[in-house]
Amino acid sequence: MSSALTGLSRYPIVQAPMAGGASRPQLAAAVGAAGGLGFLAAGYKTPAAMYEEIKHLRAQSDVPFGVNLFMPQPATSDPSAVAVYAEQLAGEAAWYETPLGDPDSGNDDAYEAKLAILLDDPVPVVSFTFGCPTRAVCEALARVGTVTVVTVTTVEEALAAHAAGADAVCVQGIEAGGHQGTHRDDPHAQGMGAGLGLLALIELVRDAVPLPLIAAGGLMRGTQIAAVLAAGASAAQLGTAFLVCPESGAHELHKRAMTDTTFTRTELTRAFSGRPARGLANRFLREHGPYAPVAYPQVHHLTSGLRKAAAQAGDPQGMALWAGQGHRLAREMPAGHLVQVLVDELEAARAGLAARAGLAAPQPRSGAGDVA
Protein backbone atom coordinates (compact mmCIF):
# COMPACT_ATOMS: atom_id res chain seq x y z
CA MET A 1 0.00 0.00 0.00
CA SER A 2 1.31 3.46 -0.82
CA SER A 3 2.63 6.09 1.56
CA ALA A 4 -0.58 7.58 3.01
CA LEU A 5 -1.93 4.11 3.76
CA THR A 6 1.30 2.37 4.81
CA GLY A 7 1.12 0.81 8.24
CA LEU A 8 -2.66 0.91 8.51
CA SER A 9 -3.11 -2.76 7.68
CA ARG A 10 -1.16 -5.85 6.74
CA TYR A 11 -3.25 -6.53 3.64
CA PRO A 12 -4.73 -4.18 1.01
CA ILE A 13 -8.27 -5.02 2.11
CA VAL A 14 -10.63 -2.39 3.52
CA GLN A 15 -14.02 -3.17 5.07
CA ALA A 16 -16.46 -0.56 3.78
CA PRO A 17 -18.25 1.72 6.25
CA MET A 18 -21.87 0.64 5.81
CA ALA A 19 -24.25 3.07 7.52
CA GLY A 20 -27.41 1.70 9.07
CA GLY A 21 -25.88 -0.74 11.53
CA ALA A 22 -23.83 -3.24 9.50
CA SER A 23 -20.42 -1.74 10.25
CA ARG A 24 -20.44 -2.18 13.99
CA PRO A 25 -17.32 -2.43 16.21
CA GLN A 26 -17.33 -6.24 16.21
CA LEU A 27 -16.94 -6.30 12.43
CA ALA A 28 -14.22 -3.64 12.30
CA ALA A 29 -12.30 -5.37 15.09
CA ALA A 30 -12.45 -8.77 13.38
CA VAL A 31 -11.30 -7.36 10.05
CA GLY A 32 -8.47 -5.43 11.71
CA ALA A 33 -7.31 -8.44 13.71
CA ALA A 34 -7.10 -10.47 10.49
CA GLY A 35 -4.91 -7.85 8.80
CA GLY A 36 -7.45 -5.70 6.97
CA LEU A 37 -8.58 -2.16 7.73
CA GLY A 38 -11.92 -2.00 9.53
CA PHE A 39 -14.28 0.98 9.41
CA LEU A 40 -17.07 2.38 11.55
CA ALA A 41 -19.93 4.26 9.90
CA ALA A 42 -20.94 7.46 11.70
CA GLY A 43 -23.76 8.19 9.26
CA TYR A 44 -27.26 8.33 10.82
CA LYS A 45 -25.80 8.15 14.33
CA THR A 46 -25.68 10.85 16.97
CA PRO A 47 -22.21 12.16 17.89
CA ALA A 48 -22.52 10.38 21.25
CA ALA A 49 -23.38 7.07 19.57
CA MET A 50 -20.45 7.45 17.18
CA TYR A 51 -18.08 8.03 20.10
CA GLU A 52 -19.46 5.06 22.02
CA GLU A 53 -18.72 2.82 19.03
CA ILE A 54 -15.18 4.19 18.82
CA LYS A 55 -14.62 3.43 22.51
CA HIS A 56 -16.15 -0.02 22.08
CA LEU A 57 -13.83 -0.78 19.17
CA ARG A 58 -10.77 0.46 21.04
CA ALA A 59 -11.68 -1.80 23.93
CA GLN A 60 -11.69 -4.79 21.58
CA SER A 61 -8.67 -4.01 19.43
CA ASP A 62 -5.57 -1.85 19.21
CA VAL A 63 -5.18 -2.05 15.43
CA PRO A 64 -5.81 0.99 13.19
CA PHE A 65 -9.35 1.66 11.99
CA GLY A 66 -11.35 4.34 10.23
CA VAL A 67 -14.53 6.35 10.78
CA ASN A 68 -16.70 7.56 7.91
CA LEU A 69 -18.59 10.87 7.99
CA PHE A 70 -21.45 12.07 5.78
CA MET A 71 -20.93 15.60 4.49
CA PRO A 72 -23.73 18.12 5.12
CA GLN A 73 -26.18 18.38 2.23
CA PRO A 74 -27.27 21.60 0.54
CA ALA A 75 -30.94 22.56 0.86
CA THR A 76 -31.80 21.98 -2.78
CA SER A 77 -34.81 19.66 -2.60
CA ASP A 78 -38.26 20.73 -3.74
CA PRO A 79 -40.63 20.59 -0.71
CA SER A 80 -43.64 20.15 -2.97
CA ALA A 81 -42.06 17.10 -4.62
CA VAL A 82 -41.37 15.61 -1.20
CA ALA A 83 -45.00 16.28 -0.18
CA VAL A 84 -46.28 14.51 -3.31
CA TYR A 85 -44.04 11.52 -2.57
CA ALA A 86 -45.35 11.44 1.00
CA GLU A 87 -48.89 11.17 -0.38
CA GLN A 88 -47.81 8.27 -2.54
CA LEU A 89 -46.36 6.51 0.52
CA ALA A 90 -49.57 6.88 2.55
CA GLY A 91 -50.60 3.35 1.58
CA GLU A 92 -47.29 1.98 2.89
CA ALA A 93 -47.80 3.80 6.19
CA ALA A 94 -51.26 2.28 6.52
CA TRP A 95 -50.03 -1.20 5.58
CA TYR A 96 -47.17 -1.19 8.10
CA GLU A 97 -49.25 0.74 10.65
CA THR A 98 -46.55 3.34 11.21
CA PRO A 99 -46.44 7.07 10.49
CA LEU A 100 -44.16 8.60 7.90
CA GLY A 101 -41.13 10.38 9.28
CA ASP A 102 -40.52 14.13 9.33
CA PRO A 103 -38.61 14.99 6.14
CA ASP A 104 -37.24 18.14 7.79
CA SER A 105 -35.35 16.29 10.53
CA GLY A 106 -32.04 17.84 9.47
CA ASN A 107 -29.61 17.66 6.58
CA ASP A 108 -26.17 17.93 8.20
CA ASP A 109 -26.01 14.57 10.08
CA ALA A 110 -24.40 16.46 13.02
CA TYR A 111 -21.24 16.80 10.93
CA GLU A 112 -19.58 19.57 12.92
CA ALA A 113 -20.14 17.85 16.27
CA LYS A 114 -18.77 14.55 15.00
CA LEU A 115 -15.77 16.28 13.45
CA ALA A 116 -15.07 18.05 16.75
CA ILE A 117 -14.95 14.69 18.55
CA LEU A 118 -12.57 13.24 15.96
CA LEU A 119 -10.26 16.24 16.30
CA ASP A 120 -10.33 16.08 20.08
CA ASP A 121 -9.79 12.31 20.27
CA PRO A 122 -8.23 11.34 16.92
CA VAL A 123 -8.65 8.07 15.07
CA PRO A 124 -6.20 6.73 12.45
CA VAL A 125 -8.43 7.37 9.40
CA VAL A 126 -11.43 9.55 8.62
CA SER A 127 -13.24 9.20 5.30
CA PHE A 128 -15.91 11.45 3.83
CA THR A 129 -18.94 10.61 1.68
CA PHE A 130 -21.46 12.80 -0.22
CA GLY A 131 -19.01 15.64 -0.63
CA CYS A 132 -15.54 16.95 0.01
CA PRO A 133 -14.29 18.56 3.22
CA THR A 134 -12.53 21.91 3.14
CA ARG A 135 -8.77 22.24 3.08
CA ALA A 136 -8.97 23.57 6.63
CA VAL A 137 -10.64 20.34 7.79
CA CYS A 138 -8.07 18.13 6.04
CA GLU A 139 -5.23 20.17 7.52
CA ALA A 140 -6.73 20.05 11.01
CA LEU A 141 -7.05 16.26 10.82
CA ALA A 142 -3.48 15.99 9.47
CA ARG A 143 -2.20 17.95 12.46
CA VAL A 144 -3.66 15.35 14.84
CA GLY A 145 -2.22 12.47 12.79
CA THR A 146 -5.37 11.36 10.97
CA VAL A 147 -5.28 10.13 7.36
CA THR A 148 -8.12 11.60 5.27
CA VAL A 149 -9.93 9.78 2.48
CA VAL A 150 -12.62 11.26 0.20
CA THR A 151 -15.08 9.08 -1.71
CA VAL A 152 -15.17 10.05 -5.40
CA THR A 153 -17.17 8.88 -8.40
CA THR A 154 -15.71 11.14 -11.10
CA VAL A 155 -12.42 12.70 -12.09
CA GLU A 156 -13.77 16.13 -11.16
CA GLU A 157 -14.51 14.94 -7.63
CA ALA A 158 -11.02 13.43 -7.36
CA LEU A 159 -9.50 16.77 -8.42
CA ALA A 160 -11.55 18.52 -5.73
CA ALA A 161 -10.33 16.03 -3.10
CA HIS A 162 -6.72 16.58 -4.15
CA ALA A 163 -7.16 20.36 -4.03
CA ALA A 164 -8.61 20.07 -0.52
CA GLY A 165 -5.55 18.20 0.70
CA ALA A 166 -7.00 14.70 1.10
CA ASP A 167 -4.41 11.96 1.64
CA ALA A 168 -6.23 9.41 -0.54
CA VAL A 169 -9.43 8.88 -2.51
CA CYS A 170 -11.88 6.00 -2.42
CA VAL A 171 -12.80 5.49 -6.07
CA GLN A 172 -16.37 4.16 -6.16
CA GLY A 173 -17.61 2.49 -9.32
CA ILE A 174 -21.23 2.23 -10.39
CA GLU A 175 -21.21 -1.45 -9.31
CA ALA A 176 -21.10 -0.52 -5.62
CA GLY A 177 -23.90 -1.38 -3.23
CA GLY A 178 -25.59 1.26 -1.12
CA HIS A 179 -25.38 4.97 -1.84
CA GLN A 180 -23.33 6.42 -4.62
CA GLY A 181 -20.95 8.84 -2.94
CA THR A 182 -21.41 11.61 -5.48
CA HIS A 183 -20.54 15.07 -4.19
CA ARG A 184 -23.69 16.53 -5.72
CA ASP A 185 -26.86 14.74 -6.70
CA ASP A 186 -27.74 16.77 -9.77
CA PRO A 187 -31.37 16.25 -10.86
CA HIS A 188 -30.48 17.52 -14.33
CA ALA A 189 -27.61 15.11 -14.88
CA GLN A 190 -27.86 11.94 -16.93
CA GLY A 191 -29.78 8.97 -15.54
CA MET A 192 -28.67 7.23 -12.36
CA GLY A 193 -27.05 4.41 -14.33
CA ALA A 194 -24.74 6.74 -16.23
CA GLY A 195 -21.84 6.43 -13.77
CA LEU A 196 -18.52 4.84 -14.60
CA GLY A 197 -17.51 1.25 -13.96
CA LEU A 198 -14.74 0.74 -11.43
CA LEU A 199 -11.84 -0.28 -13.70
CA ALA A 200 -12.39 2.63 -16.08
CA LEU A 201 -12.72 5.05 -13.17
CA ILE A 202 -9.49 3.83 -11.57
CA GLU A 203 -7.55 4.52 -14.76
CA LEU A 204 -9.09 7.97 -15.22
CA VAL A 205 -8.53 9.05 -11.62
CA ARG A 206 -5.01 7.63 -11.54
CA ASP A 207 -4.14 9.77 -14.55
CA ALA A 208 -5.70 12.86 -12.96
CA VAL A 209 -4.41 12.95 -9.37
CA PRO A 210 -1.20 11.80 -7.62
CA LEU A 211 -3.06 10.22 -4.70
CA PRO A 212 -3.34 6.63 -3.44
CA LEU A 213 -6.58 5.02 -4.61
CA ILE A 214 -8.86 2.70 -2.68
CA ALA A 215 -11.05 0.84 -5.18
CA ALA A 216 -14.70 0.13 -4.33
CA GLY A 217 -17.56 -1.34 -6.31
CA GLY A 218 -18.85 -4.90 -6.56
CA LEU A 219 -15.67 -6.56 -5.26
CA MET A 220 -16.31 -9.99 -3.73
CA ARG A 221 -13.31 -12.20 -4.55
CA GLY A 222 -9.53 -12.04 -4.25
CA THR A 223 -9.25 -12.28 -8.03
CA GLN A 224 -11.12 -8.98 -8.31
CA ILE A 225 -8.84 -7.43 -5.71
CA ALA A 226 -5.87 -8.53 -7.82
CA ALA A 227 -7.45 -6.84 -10.83
CA VAL A 228 -7.94 -3.46 -9.17
CA LEU A 229 -4.45 -3.55 -7.66
CA ALA A 230 -3.03 -4.32 -11.09
CA ALA A 231 -5.02 -1.37 -12.45
CA GLY A 232 -3.29 0.98 -10.02
CA ALA A 233 -5.29 0.92 -6.78
CA SER A 234 -3.42 0.73 -3.47
CA ALA A 235 -6.20 -1.20 -1.73
CA ALA A 236 -9.66 -2.66 -2.31
CA GLN A 237 -12.75 -1.79 -0.29
CA LEU A 238 -15.48 -4.41 0.13
CA GLY A 239 -18.90 -3.89 1.68
CA THR A 240 -21.42 -6.48 0.49
CA ALA A 241 -18.83 -9.23 0.98
CA PHE A 242 -18.63 -8.40 4.72
CA LEU A 243 -22.34 -7.63 5.16
CA VAL A 244 -23.23 -11.33 5.57
CA CYS A 245 -20.55 -12.05 8.19
CA PRO A 246 -21.80 -12.94 11.69
CA GLU A 247 -20.02 -9.85 13.08
CA SER A 248 -22.03 -7.58 10.79
CA GLY A 249 -24.96 -5.77 12.36
CA ALA A 250 -27.11 -6.02 9.23
CA HIS A 251 -30.62 -7.41 9.74
CA GLU A 252 -30.83 -11.18 9.23
CA LEU A 253 -33.40 -10.71 6.46
CA HIS A 254 -30.92 -8.44 4.67
CA LYS A 255 -28.14 -11.01 5.04
CA ARG A 256 -30.28 -13.87 3.72
CA ALA A 257 -31.50 -11.80 0.78
CA MET A 258 -27.97 -11.55 -0.63
CA THR A 259 -28.10 -15.11 -1.96
CA ASP A 260 -31.89 -15.60 -2.03
CA THR A 261 -32.92 -16.55 -5.57
CA THR A 262 -36.07 -14.43 -5.10
CA PHE A 263 -33.87 -11.38 -5.68
CA THR A 264 -32.39 -11.67 -9.14
CA ARG A 265 -30.83 -8.25 -9.69
CA THR A 266 -29.84 -4.92 -8.21
CA GLU A 267 -30.93 -1.43 -9.25
CA LEU A 268 -29.99 2.13 -8.49
CA THR A 269 -32.93 3.85 -6.84
CA ARG A 270 -33.96 6.96 -4.92
CA ALA A 271 -37.00 5.18 -3.46
CA PHE A 272 -35.70 4.89 0.09
CA SER A 273 -33.53 7.97 0.54
CA GLY A 274 -33.92 10.41 -2.34
CA ARG A 275 -30.32 9.73 -3.43
CA PRO A 276 -29.06 7.10 -5.90
CA ALA A 277 -28.31 3.87 -4.04
CA ARG A 278 -27.91 0.30 -5.30
CA GLY A 279 -30.09 -2.34 -3.70
CA LEU A 280 -31.84 -5.61 -4.46
CA ALA A 281 -34.89 -5.01 -6.60
CA ASN A 282 -37.87 -5.64 -4.33
CA ARG A 283 -41.51 -4.53 -4.28
CA PHE A 284 -40.90 -1.13 -2.64
CA LEU A 285 -38.12 -0.27 -5.05
CA ARG A 286 -40.15 -1.25 -8.11
CA GLU A 287 -43.34 0.53 -7.02
CA HIS A 288 -41.85 3.76 -5.72
CA GLY A 289 -38.45 4.14 -7.34
CA PRO A 290 -39.72 5.77 -10.54
CA TYR A 291 -41.49 8.50 -8.56
CA ALA A 292 -39.00 9.28 -5.79
CA PRO A 293 -37.76 12.88 -5.92
CA VAL A 294 -34.17 14.11 -5.78
CA ALA A 295 -34.37 14.89 -2.07
CA TYR A 296 -31.73 13.55 0.29
CA PRO A 297 -31.94 13.24 3.25
CA GLN A 298 -35.60 14.30 3.26
CA VAL A 299 -36.79 11.03 1.69
CA HIS A 300 -34.50 9.07 4.01
CA HIS A 301 -36.23 10.63 7.02
CA LEU A 302 -39.65 10.11 5.41
CA THR A 303 -39.18 6.35 4.88
CA SER A 304 -37.13 5.52 7.97
CA GLY A 305 -40.10 4.27 9.99
CA LEU A 306 -41.45 2.26 7.07
CA ARG A 307 -38.16 0.43 6.63
CA LYS A 308 -37.96 -0.39 10.33
CA ALA A 309 -41.57 -1.57 10.39
CA ALA A 310 -40.99 -3.82 7.37
CA ALA A 311 -37.97 -5.39 9.10
CA GLN A 312 -39.97 -5.94 12.30
CA ALA A 313 -42.74 -7.54 10.24
CA GLY A 314 -40.25 -9.89 8.58
CA ASP A 315 -40.97 -8.39 5.16
CA PRO A 316 -37.84 -7.91 3.01
CA GLN A 317 -40.03 -6.51 0.22
CA GLY A 318 -40.33 -3.26 2.16
CA MET A 319 -36.70 -2.97 3.29
CA ALA A 320 -33.74 -1.18 1.78
CA LEU A 321 -31.65 -4.20 0.84
CA TRP A 322 -28.45 -2.45 -0.19
CA ALA A 323 -26.21 -4.71 -2.25
CA GLY A 324 -23.46 -4.50 -4.84
CA GLN A 325 -23.68 -6.13 -8.24
CA GLY A 326 -21.69 -9.14 -7.02
CA HIS A 327 -24.08 -9.96 -4.15
CA ARG A 328 -24.71 -13.54 -5.30
CA LEU A 329 -21.03 -14.24 -4.56
CA ALA A 330 -21.51 -13.50 -0.84
CA ARG A 331 -20.05 -16.10 1.52
CA GLU A 332 -21.31 -16.44 5.07
CA MET A 333 -18.24 -16.89 7.24
CA PRO A 334 -16.52 -15.06 10.09
CA ALA A 335 -14.98 -11.79 8.98
CA GLY A 336 -11.46 -12.79 9.95
CA HIS A 337 -11.78 -16.01 7.95
CA LEU A 338 -13.11 -14.06 4.98
CA VAL A 339 -10.10 -11.74 5.04
CA GLN A 340 -7.77 -14.75 4.94
CA VAL A 341 -9.74 -16.38 2.11
CA LEU A 342 -9.55 -13.14 0.14
CA VAL A 343 -5.79 -12.92 0.75
CA ASP A 344 -5.32 -16.53 -0.38
CA GLU A 345 -7.35 -15.84 -3.53
CA LEU A 346 -5.37 -12.66 -4.16
CA GLU A 347 -2.04 -14.45 -3.85
CA ALA A 348 -3.22 -17.30 -6.06
CA ALA A 349 -4.35 -14.80 -8.70
CA ARG A 350 -1.01 -13.01 -8.55
CA ALA A 351 0.88 -16.29 -8.84
CA GLY A 352 -1.24 -17.31 -11.81
CA LEU A 353 -0.61 -14.02 -13.55
CA ALA A 354 3.12 -14.31 -12.92
CA ALA A 355 3.17 -17.85 -14.27
CA ARG A 356 1.28 -16.86 -17.40
CA ALA A 357 3.56 -13.88 -17.89
CA GLY A 358 6.56 -16.23 -17.69
CA LEU A 359 5.08 -18.56 -20.29
CA ALA A 360 4.38 -15.60 -22.54
CA ALA A 361 7.94 -14.25 -22.28
CA PRO A 362 9.97 -14.61 -25.49
CA GLN A 363 12.35 -17.57 -25.45
CA PRO A 364 15.97 -17.19 -26.57
CA ARG A 365 16.52 -18.27 -30.15
CA SER A 366 19.17 -20.88 -30.93
CA GLY A 367 22.09 -19.45 -32.92
CA ALA A 368 25.09 -20.88 -34.83
CA GLY A 369 27.39 -20.56 -31.85
CA ASP A 370 24.96 -22.02 -29.31
CA VAL A 371 25.80 -25.23 -27.53
CA ALA A 372 23.08 -27.82 -28.24
CATH class of the largest domain: Alpha Beta
Unreliable spans: 366-372
Can you write the helix and strand succession as a string?
EHEHEHHHEHEHEEHEHEHHEEHHH
Give the name of the CATH architecture of the largest domain: Alpha-Beta Barrel
Largest sheet: 8 strands, parallel
* Secondary structural class: alpha/beta
Radius of gyration: 22 Å
The beta-strand count equals 11
The proportion of strand residues reads 5-15%
Strand arrangement across the biggest beta sheet: 1-9-8-6-5-4-3-2
Can you identify the CATH superfamily of the largest domain?
Answer: Aldolase class I
Q: Give the domain tally.
A: 2
At the fold tier of CATH, the topology name of the largest domain is: TIM Barrel
What's the pLDDT, averaged over the residues?
Answer: 94
Percent helix among the residues? 25-40%
Q: Tally the helices: what do you get?
A: 14
What do these coordinates show?
- With 372 residues, the chain is α/β, with parallel strands linked by helices.
- The chain has 2 domains: 3-73 and 108-252 and 325-356, TIM Barrel, CATH 3.20.20.70; 80-107 and 264-320, no CATH class.
- The chain is built from 14 helices and 11 strands.
- The strands form 2 sheets. It has an 8-stranded parallel sheet with strand order 1-9-8-6-5-4-3-2.
- α6 links the parallel β4 (125-129) and β5 (147-152).
- The longest helix has 26 residues, at 335-360.
- It is globular and about 65 Å long.
- The relative contact order is 0.16.
- The model is unreliable at 366-372 (pLDDT under 50).
